[in-house]
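Issue 218. Parser rejects a valid record. Input:
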Amino acid sequence: MIKIDRRDFIASLGGAAAVALMSHEARADAIEHYMEDRLYAQAEGTATGGSAAAAFPTAAEIHAAIPTRHYRRGAGGLFVATQPGQNVDFLAEMSAKPTLLEFFEKRFMRTSNHCLQSANKAMQRGVQEEVILACLLHDTIQELMKTDHGYWGAAMYEPYVPPITSWAIRYHQALRFFPDEAAGYHYPDLYHRMYGMDYVPPPHIQAAKTFAEGHEWYHAAREVTVSDLYAFDDTAKVTIDPFMNIIERHFKQPAEGLGFDNSPSAHMWRSMGNPDAPL
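Output the parser choked on:
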């Protein structure tokens, strides 16, 4: 499992004072991005023996660079190079009618390892296929947009997946802040160390959690958090093969190709297909 050097991680964000100024959601996103970057570096063979956190600038450096760079921190992984001294590279050309599998192969490079691990854990737990699919897809949207990723992801997948699948993707974002012992989700010790034992989530997160708890599909979003929490294993070897039948049964692949079917989210797929388009 990936181990976080708390001291290095805090230093990468600008120190304790800078962390104190961050919102709790921003801290949670920083942790997720850190672990996903570790997985990506491992997969590419670029990780070193030290902490991957050292690859990121401090919060103070990021703030000073706002007027000098052409992207925001919430931009998806396809749009920025995160390794020191790197530029973005050429991406593989997409076919005329892209499929979900093609996006996994050519565009979901940073998130696929984690999502495959998550789906594999859900499959081992014997949950229903629509929820396994949610685990498989839940963080892939971060290739396009990291900010508020649960809602962005749900919007992108809604035209193509069962309603319970997109619902689970949407509400996993809020439920990760709330333990559910009966479901097997324990509030992470890391969150206690980073946010304090008296942390209280902001009102909109609490409202989303309350709504989800009263919904018949609560178990689906909760399962995403259960499988998500323990899915950061940088030594795991995973492929999409075990999930191909689930994709065939529950993902509505458009004949025109993702991005060219005039769906409400077609523009999101086109943006990932050609992230170098100037307009």
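Fixed in the parser; the record now loads. Confidence is low (pLDDT under 50) at residues 39-57.
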